[in-house]
Amino acid sequence: MSTVQERPNEVRRENLSALSDADGPIPFVDLRPQHASLAEVLRATFDDVVGDSQLILGPQVEAFEKAFARAIGAAHAVGVSNGLDALTLALMALDVGTGDEVIVPTNTAAATALAVSAVGARPVFVDCDEDYLLDLDAVRAATSARTRAVIPVHLYGRAVDMTVLTTWAARAGVRVVEDVAQAHGAQHAGRACGTWGGAGGFSFYPTKNLGALGDAGMVTSGDAELAARVRRLANYGQRRRYEHVEPGRNCRLDTLQAAVLLAKLPHLEAWNRERVVAAADYSERLAGVGDLVLPRPAAAGDRHVCHLYVVRTATRDALREHLQRAGIGTGVHYPSPLHLEKAFASLGYRPGAFPRAERMAQEIVSLPIYPGLGLARVERVCVAIRAFFGG
Ligand SMILES: *Cc1c(COP(=O)(O)O)cnc(C)c1O
């Protein structure tokens, strides 16, 4: 059981800083340390796949599906093209479509709500709680006769309270599709995110906790029929070759990306621990600094995998500029709640609809956190932040 406050002693501090170059800039995200440590393996993987040349649905796709399912404890997993397609296919396989409503948090990556639009359903936005997760009271209040599904997003790597959500959803007859794009290996009550809902949608976008060398995704499910349907829908609606049983799409996972992910998967635990250790270090060094609001530790029994380390301050933009001048990159996840984005303007939401998410969007800033960042860099970021607040 890990929380952002624990310091798992499996990770030695020396290892974390091994790749740091002492005083250089600190980008917001840097995949080079991760890929440098795997350079040989990645080259061998490339040679294998090109040697075999089974580039579509080659054996590594099934091997990765099995390994990933085993790693998180899911009964079934279907490799797909990306996280947006994973969520879209999950909704399609649940027959969510025109005339249906799907509840989604307004503070998430656009892809969460775009999946709902993609199947012709209507995203119904809800506000977030203090931990940036969808507010479960708001979910209940947003439910109507047309509500077919809800998409809890395990944002920043923190698990939504799936006990409460799935209990309510079962009673209300609402399907649950988890957005697990930021939470590979995260757990609620000792059970992995992506195994609680009717389906889970993972992304292996390069910067996620487990990332491909390009786009990739996965649908997980405990339901064999649902998984089989996702597999069909992702492959031209075919049950077997040239037997098209329903209108499908092409959302397959490339063999090359599957092989890369298979090679990276054994490192996911160690990478997640590095993130957890870095987050704990940030929290220790930044406690009581300025008006910063730090992420709360995970609830007992939960596991936060620290995809992002997000803090809040009233002087967010000035802090970002200060850090930029110090050569430290930051991000904002996300600068605009989705109900205010033009893509969703036809839904008719107005500014003020979701006050907490709107306020947080002005105040949040994501600090660098990734495997190979190293605690020396965490310290440099914290020194620069304390200097900004005059301490
Ligand atoms: C990255 C992300 C997605 C989309 O995944 P892609 O692979 O980029 O399509 C969806 N939801 C969340 C919360 C994400 O962070």
Question: Could you describe the 3D structure shown?
Answer:
The protein is an alpha/beta fold. The chain contains 14 helices and 13 strands. It has helices at about 15, 30-35, 40-50, 60-70, 85-95, 110-120, 135-140, 160-170, 225-235, 255-265, 270-285, 315-325, 355-365, 375-390; strands spanning about 75-80, 100-105, 120-125, 145-150, 175-180, 185-190, 190, 200-205, 215-220, 240, 245, 310, 365. About 50% of the residues are buried.
From the alpha-carbon coordinates, what is the Rg to the nearest angstrom? Answer: 21 Å
Described by strand count, sense and barrel closure, the largest sheet is: 7 strands, mixed
Bound small molecules, by name, code or SMILES, are: pyridoxal-5'-phosphate
Poorly predicted segments: 1-20
Number of strands: 13
Strand order of the largest sheet: 1-9-8-5-4-2-3
Annotation field: number of helices:
14
Bin the helical content. 25-40%
Distance between the termini: 34 Å
Write a short abstract of this structure:
With 391 residues, the protein is α/β, with parallel strands linked by helices.
Topology:
Layout: H1 13-17, H2 32-37, H3 39-52, H4 59-72, E1 76-80, H5 83-93, E2 101-105, H6 110-118, E3 122-126, H7 136-142, E4 147-150, H8 162-172, E5 175-179, E6 187-188, E7 191-192, E8 199-203, E9 217-221, H9 224-233, E10 238-240, E11 243-244, H10 255-264, H11 268-286, E12 309-312, H12 316-325, H13 355-363, E13 364-367, H14 375-388
Parallel strand pairs: 2-3, 2-4, 4-5, 5-8
Antiparallel strand pairs: 1-9, 6-7, 8-9, 10-11, 12-13
This protein binds pyridoxal-5'-phosphate.
The site of pyridoxal-5'-phosphate has 15 residues, from helix 5 and helix 6.
